[in-house]
Amino acid sequence: MAAKTLIIFFLSVFPFVFNAYAGVRAVEPLLINVVRSLGGKELDLYVKVIVPSVLPYVVAGARIAVGRALIGVLVGEFFAASEGIGTPSRGSAIYSRWTRCLPASSSSWSLRWR
After folding, report:
1. How many other CB atoms are found less than 10 A from the CB of residue 75?
2. Model pTM?
3. Measured between alpha carbons, how far is 98 from 75 in angstroms, rounded to an integer?
């Protein structure tokens, strides 16, 4: 269980973090200077400028991260699971039983495309 969780975590966390970082770096310095020159506090800066500017990047990162997490679920199920739908396919491939490997793989892929 821990191996599958790590696979999913590593596949999904990096797009989210990098997009959030890119969003923070993309905030216009002019807007930050305007808030500071008008006497805005740090809370005003974050609430009124940074968070609204970063939100599209965070949503895009979350969308990418969810897709990667679903791919991570499939990869984890096939390679890091001790039971489940990927185990018969992997076991059949290890022992070169290709007639049993194909139905197990195709059943898992048909479930993916529903």
Report:
1. 16
2. 0.66
3. 20
